[in-house]
Each structure stands twice: as C-alpha cells, then as structure tokens.
C-alpha cells in the first residue's frame, strides 16, 4: 500500500512547532491533538457508510451513517497523545491498547501490555506518533491480526523511510498515513530531522 502524507498546510505548520525543541509539554500535547485530528480525517476518508432513512423537520430523506464499528489501538505510551481526536470525531469508537517499549541499546521493542476489544468486522486504526525502524508498528499489527483484525490502517505523525519499508514488507496491505516522511534514522535509530523522543516530550520525562 502507498504511504499517504498530509498535504494540508496546517499539517506542516503544526509539525514545525512539534519539531521545535523549545516547545514545552503543554503545547506539545495540544499540537499532537491538532495533527492527529487532521490524520484521523485522512485515515477515515474511505470508511463505509450505509443508508439510514430519517425525517428532517421538512420531509423524509435517505441519510448515510457509518456502517462498521471503529477500533483505535494506540501503541503505549506515546500513542496516547493521538487518541483524543479519534474519540472526539467518533464517540462510539472502541479502544484497544498495545504496550511496547524500545530497548535503549538495541532499539528492539518489548511487549509489556495488551488489551484489545473484539475486532471481527471492524476497521482497526493503529496509532503511534513515530515510525522509526518500524519494529513497534510491525509488532502491533501482528498482535491486531492475531486477535482477528483484518481491515487495518496505521497512522503516525513522523515516518522514517526504514520504518515505512519494514511495514510495507511485513504488512503490505496496511495503508500508512503519516504527517511527514523524514530523511533517515541516526545510529541510535532516532528519526532525522524528527522531533526527538515523542513520549518524553509529551510527558515531560
Ligand atoms: C517510540 C514510539 C514508537 C517507537 C518507534 O516509543 O512511540 O512506539 O518508539 O520506534 P520503532 O519504529 O523503531 O519501533 P518508545 O519505545 O520510546 O516508548 P514510549 O512510547 O513509551 O516512549
Ligand atoms: N521514537 C521516538 O520517540 N523518536 C524517534 O525518533 C524514534 C523512535
């Protein structure tokens, strides 16, 4: 599946302030919500709808409503910084959690938590702000598939070419929506130019 990147000028504006190292956690959280809202709209552009007959105050009409349940799966902990706009836009959404943490030396993600709702017949949107090596995203989608998820989308704020390649190799049918595609990873597997450690900046750790 191709990589989709945000084209809305507000996306570039918000991302620039997120990347700025002088941005403090309170503003960082606000900006995360703003860019996640834009990404949520893009990642749900193709949701199926079905007819629902209603009556306006003037006359009957066939309206359209969302046809299938939506499940959001933030990868803990930084993925929590993208959850609120999905709740705001889709109040009936179910939320699953996958806890993964990269080892500081090897950059390999270790699983420490998993709780998922029933996934059969749903659209599952896995969210994690940073797609670096792709190890966390690939593992999370593995878990979602093992739990019965079939229609899966991955959403991130910044992607590295290495992470996109890893996802496209492991899960070629999963569309990726990113705020931006950056240049590369450094020797410690951080994204360049990136925005640093998202979880640390979000939570002030
Ligand atoms: C960060 C980020 C992703 C992961 C990306 O999480 O939120 O989950 O790294 O890297 P990868 O593509 O190389 O796997 P981290 O492991 O630092 O944990 P945190 O969310 O608890 O800060
Ligand atoms: N995780 C982050 O938070 N930032 C990176 O650049 C890479 C992984």
Oligomer: single chain
CATH topology, by name, is Rossmann fold
Biggest beta-sheet profile: 9 strands, mixed
Secondary structural class? alpha/beta
Q: Spell out the helices and strands N to C.
A: EHHEEEHEEEEEHEHEEEH
Relative strand content: 25-35%
Question: Which blocks of ≥5 consecutive residues have pLDDT under 50?
Answer: none
Estimate nothing, just give the exact number of structural domains.
1
Query: Fraction of residues in helices?
Result: 25-40%
Global morphology: globular
**Helix tally?**
6
Cα-based radius of gyration, to the nearest Å: 17 Å
Q: What small ligands are held by the chains?
A: 1-O-pyrophosphono-5-O-phosphono-alpha-D-ribofuranose, uracil
Distance between the termini: 35 Å
CATH class: Alpha Beta
Quick check: average pLDDT? 97
CATH architecture: 3-Layer(aba) Sandwich
Write up this protein:
The chain has 205 residues and is an alpha/beta fold. The protein has helices at 9-19, 25-43, 83-89, 135-146, 161-170, 198-203; strands at 3-5, 49-55, 60-66, 70-76, 94-95, 97-102, 109-115, 123-127, 130-131, 151-159, 176-181, 184-185, 191-192. Strands 1, 4, 5, 6, 7, 8, 9, 10 and 11 form a 9-stranded mixed β-sheet that branches. Strand 6 and strand 7 (109-115) form a beta hairpin. The radius of gyration is 17 Å and the shape is globular. The model has no long low-confidence stretch (mean pLDDT 97). 1-O-pyrophosphono-5-O-phosphono-alpha-D-ribofuranose (PRP) binds at residues 75, 77-78, 100-102, 107, 109, 128-137, 163, 189, 198-199.
